[in-house]
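User: Could you go from structure to sequence for me? I need the amino acid at each position, not a summary. Structure tokens:
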């Protein structure tokens, strides 16, 4: 089954509140284990959550990314620790309510989230933006581990030179439950890195025009 799913990605899942400046986020910190092709940063927000930013350039069409997100059966092949995703509703042609389940491993419990997502494209820049917000208060699903809340994330696909696309993900969420900060940070950063490492190979399978999306090349 195909459905637009703006995954919050594990870069935002397994986090625990941390003391931060009351009124503004801390400065971004670079994840030193990331390869040269992928930039991964993190920072602590005033709410105590960790925010993740991941970036890389990919030789791909814009529509390919939407097709990849729609192909829910393959979520486990590229989104680290993702187990399954299910559509709950479709408020509009470019908007979906999605229930996503993530598998844990000791001592990390399974987690799930319910999100409202939509995508838009800039008419001149052709930049594709995909937003995701928490919808757990509006849709009730069976309890499958720890429920995540306060989800805020965005994917940005910006056309650049030589028909490449700069893909950026920024997201934060409250994971629910409890995890030691060092374990949460390590697991989260390695998961978002694994996810971004899979993007080029996965996108190769979806290089075709997508209805409503204008390609720069």
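Assistant: Here is the amino acid at each position, in order:
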């Amino acid at each position: 089954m195909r459905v637009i799913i703006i995954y919050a990605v594990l870069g935002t899942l397994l986090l625990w509140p941390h003391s931060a400046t009351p009124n503004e986020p801390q400065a971004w910190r670079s994840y030193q284990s990331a390869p040269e092709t992928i930039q991964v940063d993190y920072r602590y927000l005033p709410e105590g959550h960790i925010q993740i930013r991941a970036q890389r350039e990919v030789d791909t069409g814009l529509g390919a990314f939407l097709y990849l997100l729609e192909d829910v059966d393959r979520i486990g092949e590229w989104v680290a620790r993702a187990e399954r995703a299910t559509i709950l509703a479709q408020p509009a042609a470019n908007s979906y309510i999605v229930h996503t389940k993530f598998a844990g491993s000791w001592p990390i419990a399974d987690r799930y989230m319910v999100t409202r997502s939509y995508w838009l494209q800039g008419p001149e820049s052709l930049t594709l933006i995909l937003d995701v917000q928490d919808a757990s208060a509006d849709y009730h699903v069976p309890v499958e581990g720890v429920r995540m809340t306060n989800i805020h994330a965005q994917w940005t696909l910006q056309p650049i030179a030589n028909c490449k696309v700069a893909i950026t993900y920024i997201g934060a969420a409250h994971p629910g439950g409890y995890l030691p900060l060092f374990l949460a940070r390590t697991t989260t950063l390695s998961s978002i890195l694994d996810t971004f490492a899979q993007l080029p190979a996965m996108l190769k399978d979806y290089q075709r025009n997508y209805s409503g999306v204008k390609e720069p090349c």
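One structural detail worth keeping in mind: The chain is about 15% helix and 35% strand.
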